[in-house]
Amino acid sequence: MAWTQTVARRVQTSVTPELAEYLAGLDMLYLGTANSSGQPCIQYRGGLVGFLNVLDERTLAFADFGGNRQYITVGILSENPMSVIFLMDYANSRRIKLWGEAEVIEAEEELLVVLQIQTYGGRVERAV
Fold first, then answer.
1. pLDDT tens across 78-124, in order?
2. Which pTM does this prediction carry?
3. What DSSP letter does each residue of 23-75 carry, written as one string?
4. Residue 42's CATH number
5. 23: in domain
């Protein structure tokens, strides 16, 4: 099936103050990745409001806590860093898609401390 669509898009290459304010109020996102064979995967990531951090105008990060021990995202990102963050604003019928590269960071204690939400008792295992 072939199809075409013309869409007027607003494309940004950095995090604007408006986007940073929006991101600070999130409690969930969908992380899209694809392994080296191109097989896609969408993973839900959630936390307390403010779990997605703007580190600078081109870098976002969130804490990764122990979960189901499948390490799907960790494995896929070790093969292919290309990813998308899909943000659904259900209340306002708005979607935001952020494309880029993701990496798993485990040994930067200073970053892990920054990403720790004080009111959440889980231990940060790594950063994405």
1. 999 999 999 988 888 888 999 999 999 887 778 777 777 766 666 77
2. 0.80
3. HHT-SEEEEEEE-TT--EEEEEEE-STT-SEEEETTEEE-EEE--SS--HHHH
4. 2.30.110.10
5. yes
